[in-house]
């Protein structure tokens, strides 16, 4: 499928993409480039990378595809650096969790290459990051949202879609605006809330006591608070309009729950919890089987 | 250890207590009593109960121990009903997630029996409830917090402690006030927040779309939103003072995060997330191994 692909950022997302394509026999050579030499060396030792490049001219020579798997705040800088060396055939996709900002960066830095740019968001995270967290099956059965540009060529979209599909993913398409609103609600807000809860507790005088009694509910609720701070900083900044809208809707929800608590209104609390519980269990029934 | 124990409420907590003591060979006969005949019949069919009692006089005849494993809002009613039939030797413990209200109910309804009353909170939940969710190992390695009354006799405390220890639990002691504050922070607030998030999303016009893109972060964050509505209604009402204090601290946290988002203050967001992430990962390192 590909003779040579370049991964910028050989962490969980980039590393798993490389391992998945290798496992599928869909790539001959995987070249890594990135800001941390130690990370790239680790990725090579783990069999994720075949070559490490220290400059873009060497990396992109003869490349069929470039995957940008860096925190979204880095996309612009990376695109600017790569742009002069993109060849006519080189496809560009990414693994960023926000898409409107990736659009903006592409229009700014990849102007003459837009036909080959097909932004993507693989819905497959983990609270662990780095090359050691990568594995070939990460995308197996997971969704990948493509948000093609109006300028993306049909052939480029088809090839990028096929690449993600070869990783085992179910690929769908969305506008970047819809994408960013959906993920603000079901991903970005929960991350913000989990970070907030752990931050709140860790700053208490009795934090050790509190943590010592935290059980499985706390464990699962806060799992995503162990996520990569820089990655989530970038997502929150990039998607802050949609995230603020979601946060405000949630604050209204909490204000209502607070009023029910103040009033000790058991029936209304139960009704509220019952609606949530039924919806959560129906979701689990449909999507977790 | 016990010839006859009585379980009021043969769900996850009561059923697992019975199964654990049976597995340990620590009880001869387990008698069930409760408001739902169907639940009791199911528990007997599952081997949790040996007998079903329809009145308290029969249930408590010769009983060594009574476990109250009902939603905390029912504790008073159940204590009032059981009180006239408690024998001199009958120990009383419970599985309620709040303790100040159980204290209050004991002082109101079990006045002449306080020496034998030893309230407890097993820190072992699950989002599933009912007898079918019960299993003998639920308490294995889990903590159980005893909150003895000043009136509880040393012997009663020792025997109740031994009963929970035979279930495999690590037993510790706390005041009910401290207990309720700790669990408001690490358990009750996260439940409220998870219920709130799912309630918020399920009420949207595009709820189906949102749910279809919810992934593992959402799955874990909202697992506890599948919990039993009545049980959590009772916990929230019983512990609303401490829960409101926690909710308000959390709302202040969210107000701060909101300001950082409005300002697009990346460094401050990253710093905040990094503190949370480090604390969460340190907690996991210490408690999840």
Please characterize this protein's 3D structure.
The structure is a homodimer of 289-residue chains. The first copy, chain A, is an alpha/beta fold and 289 residues long. The first copy, chain A, folds into two domains: 2-174, 3-Layer(aba) Sandwich (Rossmann fold), CATH 3.40.50; 178-287, 6-phosphogluconate dehydrogenase C-terminal fold, CATH 1.10.3660.10. Helix content of chain A is 53%, strand content 12%. Chain A contains twelve helices and eight strands. The first copy, chain A, has helices at 12-23, 37-45, 56-60, 75-82, 100-109, 154-166, 176-202, 207-212, 216-221, 229-238, 240-263, 266-287, and strands at 2-8, 27-33, 51-52, 65-68, 91-94, 120-122, 143-146, 170-173. In chain A, the strands form two sheets. Chain A has a five-stranded parallel beta sheet, sandwiched between helices. In chain A, strands 6-7-8 form a three-stranded mixed beta sheet, covered by helices on one side. Chain A is elongated. Chains A and B meet through helix 7, helix 8, helix 9, helix 10 and helix 11 of A and helix 7, helix 8, helix 9, helix 10 and helix 11 of B.
The CATH class of the largest domain in chain A is Alpha Beta
Instruction: Estimate nothing, just give the exact number of structural domains of chain A.
Output: 2
Q: At the third CATH level, what is the topology name of the largest domain in chain A?
A: Rossmann fold
Q: What sort of overall outline of chain A do the alpha carbons produce when their principal axes are compared?
A: elongated
The oligomeric state of the chains shown is: homodimer
Spatial separation of the terminal alpha carbons of chain A: 32 Å
Name the biggest interface: A-B, 92 and 92 residues
Can you give the mean pLDDT of chain A?
A: 96
The number of distinct helices of chain A, counting runs of at least 4 residues, comes to 12
Examine the secondary-structure arrangement and name the CATH architecture of the largest domain in chain A: 3-Layer(aba) Sandwich
**CATH evolutionary superfamily of the largest domain in chain A:** NAD(P)-binding Rossmann-like Domain
- The computed structural class of chain A is alpha/beta
């Amino acid at each position: 499928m590909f003779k040579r692909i370049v991964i910028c950022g050989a962490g969980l997302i980039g590393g798993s993409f490389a391992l998945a394509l290798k496992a599928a026999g869909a790539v001959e050579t995987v070249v890594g480039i990135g800001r941390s030499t130690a990370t790239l060396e680790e990725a090579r030792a783990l069999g994720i990378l075949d070559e490490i490049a220290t400059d873009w001219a060497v990396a992109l020579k003869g490349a069929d595809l470039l995957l940008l798997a860096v925190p979204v705040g880095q996309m612009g800088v990376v695109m600017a650096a790569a742009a002069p060396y993109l060849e006519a055939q080189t496809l560009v996709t990414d693994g960023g969790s926000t898409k409107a900002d990736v659009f903006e960066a592409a229009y700014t830095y990849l102007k003459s290459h837009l036909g080959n740019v097909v932004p993507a968001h693989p819905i497959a995270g983990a609270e662990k990051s780095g090359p050691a967290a990568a594995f070939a099956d990460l995308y197996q059965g997971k969704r990948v949202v493509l948000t093609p540009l109006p300028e993306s060529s049909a052939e480029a979209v088809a090839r990028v879609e096929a690449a993600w599909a070869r990783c085992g993913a179910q690929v769908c398409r969305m506008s970047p605006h819809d994408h960013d609103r959906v993920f603000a609600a079901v991903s970005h807000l929960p991350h913000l809330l989990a970070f907030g809860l752990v931050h709140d507790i860790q700053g208490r005088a009795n934090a050790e006591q509190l943590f010592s009694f935290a059980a499985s509910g706390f464990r699962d609720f806060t799992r995503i608070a162990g996520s990569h701070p820089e990655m989530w900083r970038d997502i929150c900044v990039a998607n802050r309009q949609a995230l603020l809208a979601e946060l405000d809707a949630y604050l209204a929800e909490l204000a209502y729950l607070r009023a029910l608590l103040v009033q000790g209104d058991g029936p209304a609390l139960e009704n509220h919890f019952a609606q949530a519980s039924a919806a959560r269990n129906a979701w689990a029934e449909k999507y977790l089987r």
